[in-house]
What we know:
It contains eight helices and seven strands; from the N terminus they run βαβαβαβαβαβαααβ. By secondary structure, it is an alpha/beta fold. It folds into two domains: 9-183 and 224-249, Rossmann fold (3-Layer(aba) Sandwich), CATH 3.40.50.720; 185-222, no CATH class. A seven-stranded parallel β-sheet has the order 3-2-1-4-5-6-7, with helices on both faces. Strand 2, helix 2 and strand 3 form a beta-alpha-beta unit. It is globular.
Amino acid sequence: MDLGIKGRRAVVCASSKGLGLGCARALAEAGVNLVMNARGADALEQAAGAIRSEFGVEVVTVAADITDENGRAEVLRVAGEVDILVNNAGGPPPGMWTDWDRDDFIKALDANMLAPIAMMKALMPGMMERGWGRVVNITSQSVKAPIPQLGLSNSARAGLTGYVAGTARQVAPHGVTVNNLLPGIHATDRAVGLDKGAAEAAGIDVEQARKNRQATIPARRYGTAAEFGATCAFLCSQHAGFIVGQNILLDGGAVNATL
Length: 259
Ligand code: NAP
């Protein structure tokens, strides 16, 4: 299917690896020029180089912390006029509800709620003026079904989801859509980290922890960054202009809910 976005320009935050990279690659495959970001320059340059040679699109890189005001300013300075924004950042650490104090919450809110809001506030006015824009926020299945050990993530992402629910309806009249993609467990570095934590807590090896988790997923496997990216690219496509303010779960059926 032609996604109808060839030649558009996208900022994909936190995209040297994992789900962000999956989104960047799928957008590039659709002919979208990219501004890619991550903190570590080496992996970022490697990912950008592979995309340039595979898909022939223009890719600009900005090595910066997207959760930091100065980092965002640098990304925005380089980005210029943007049609598509994919918001992403690393997830907060796991723990117990008793572990976290105010500073931990502020850090999680900065990374997973206030950073994407700041990016939307910076880039959506231009999209609205030009009458076309797409925003996808990578959140988590924890928005629909809490993951107890990820209380910081549950909290910050719920806040972002509330903001998007109202804001998406305010920008939609101007041709701008905002939607959230909710990953269940996907085979990325983050998943390996979570499996290591589960293995240590249960006194089992990582492979067993992974098998145990896979058994709880109706699809009996982890998702891939490529299939996640393909969904993101569709949400950013010309065809998705009537999808507004939605929370789309990609979890292999893990959340046991009718709606
Ligand atoms: P990942 O494989 O660890 O990749 C994270 C990417 O983000 C890397 O490119 C990393 O590069 C970049 N990054 C991290 N923090 C950043 C920052 N502050 N500024 C700029 N770039 C940053 O993670 P993932 O699995 O793709 O997860 C992406 C998001 O989805 C996370 O918020 C995660 O919590 C959420 N999520 C993931 C899953 C899953 O199963 N994978 C499930 C639910 C939710 P640098 O380290 O070099 O910056």
